[in-house]
Amino acid sequence: MSAASENSLIRETSQALDIPIESGWDDVPEDKQQRAINRLPLVRRCVEQTDCAGITLNGAIDNLLLSISTERISNDLIELAYQLGRKGKPVARATLYRWCQDFKKHGVMGLVPGHKGSGRKDYGWEARALHYWQLPSKPAAAAVARWIREEGHESAKDDRVYRYLKSLPADARVRGRIGARLFTNTQKSFIRRTTTSLAVGACYEGDGHTIDVYLQHPNGGNRPWRAEITVWIDVAARYIPGWFISEAESAHSTLFALSHALTSQDHIPAVLHIDNGSGYKNKMMSTKSIGFYARLGMDIMHSRPYNAKGKGIIERWFGTMERDFGKRFPSYCGADMDPEAIDALLKKVKQGEVQLPTLAQYVGLLNDWIESYHNTPHRGLAGKTPAEMWATLEQHTVQPRTAAIFWPRTTRTVQRQAIRLDNREYFAPELLQYNGDKVIAEYSIHDDSFIRVMDEKCRWICDAKLIQKVDYLPTSRIEEAKDKRLKAQIKRLESHADEKRQRAGLAITHDQVLRDLDDAETPALEALNETGANPFGPAPACQPERTDKDEHLDSDTFDYF
């Protein structure tokens, strides 16, 4: 059918049935125009019967469907009905009814797929509804409608408010009900990165994770304790070159893990992908002159804060580790663990009925599991194992080997042939010519008996020996850090105990009040008994203390009168 004949059919049908033709037909895409024209013959037959034969629309639709099933109408309409239907059946009754209603309201534009009809009526409370809906307390639509009616908008029916909120774009429905960070992580798109073109050993991804297993505290006793594991993973091979377990994530644990990765594999990666945490981004790690990264020529790529997808490979590995390894332990305490089972376990541990795994046992089993992981086919490696991928590594060896051993550096000023570092003083005769100059001090966190001193160009000057310690100073900086942590823990416990004592003092009973009154009245009664005063009589008038001047005035006055 040509465009002219189609327009003629549309115009004739609308005029015959007294149905208006909405503007905008020419703006409708051709495919949607054709679908609307295909629906028109069936709709026209039903609407004509309602006007001419005086039957209801439901009756006209039933007659049409019966005629189609018994083949009492033209083959063109029968073929059209099956063409517009689904799964080899003619068009459904509900669909025909909807088409007829839309055609009566909007003419042939109502038969266009996706036609929304007339615009929604504004009631004036829409802005208030959106404001209430976007509260972080996440109120229900019925509560929003009730609050709006309390403000005087009687038209804010529950279903009307619900339909309005449902018609909003997805971001408007979610924004405000969740935080900006969660909105970004769950609603907005993100960049998907591929590792197919990345060489093995080119990039390490590192992060820390508190293990979901209770262990015995390393300082003794069967006290429950959760260690912190810092892991480096090769992005291309999914291989674990190094890891380290400590009490908390810090710059020391980060560099211990990195040193383990460098020395065990004898390879320096080109890029390290890390987060912005204090364990990775500080002067000891990233400063150009004294940072550990710069010393080995590694570039640093920091991920955005609070963006788990930025380091998805290591985060996924932690999940795999807890799923396949951590859950084997009876002392597993992950988020999906039954809380009653955890409480029962901790109670038995406290009573001495259960012994938690030691750190050495956990480390030994973790070593075995990582070795098994390296030899298991990985879905992200096209069926290859991480060990097979790591075997293709082109090594960039560590030269010299001792460069990978962790010795932190800091900048200090020489004063009187000595350097003061961490409340310690180091002396060397060679430092005389550097008095007042800044130098680089390299120190061991295990042994504080000496430090290495270098100039600002990292050229070795001398080894300065420790000449002074303050009282009760530990023999290493690790022990000093442990003492600081212990003192902080004791201080928190003392504050907690003081709060408990103060709260206990607020619970005042009537017995305590009576005892306090008795204690206060006893010395007062004893004082009255000593003076012979009557405690139940009227109180004596308060007489001021007399002076010699008062006596003189009294005598003169009395004599005068």
Q: Secondary-structure map with pairings?
A:
Layout: H1 3-16, H2 30-52, H3 57-70, H4 75-84, H5 93-106, H6 126-133, H7 141-150, H8 158-167, H9 170-174, H10 180-186, E1 203-210, E2 215-216, E3 224-225, E4 228-234, E5 242-246, H11 251-265, E6 271-274, H12 283-286, H13 292-295, E7 299-302, H14 312-324, H15 339-350, H16 359-374, H17 386-390, E8 409-413, E9 418-421, E10 424-427, E11 438-442, E12 450-454, E13 460-468, H18 477-505, H19 510-531, H20 548-560
Parallel strand pairs: 1-6, 6-7
Antiparallel strand pairs: 1-4, 2-3, 4-5, 8-11, 9-10, 10-13, 11-12, 12-13
Helix pairs in contact: 2-3, 2-4, 2-5, 3-5, 6-7, 7-8
Structure in words:
There is one protein chain. The protein is α+β, with helices and mostly antiparallel strands. It folds into four domains: 109 residues, no CATH class; 61 residues, no CATH class; 188 residues, Nucleotidyltransferase, domain 5 (2-Layer Sandwich); 88 residues, no CATH class. The protein is 44% helix and 11% strand. It is built from 20 helices and 13 strands. It has a six-stranded antiparallel sheet, with no helix packed on it. Strands 5-4-1-6-7 form a five-stranded mixed sheet. A two-stranded antiparallel sheet has the order 2-3. A hairpin with a 2-residue loop joins strand 9 and strand 10. Helix 2 crosses helix 4, helix 2 packs across helix 5 and helix 7 crosses helix 8. The longest helix is centred in the C-terminal third of the chain and has 29 residues. The chain is elongated and about 115 Å long. It starts with a helix and ends with a helix.
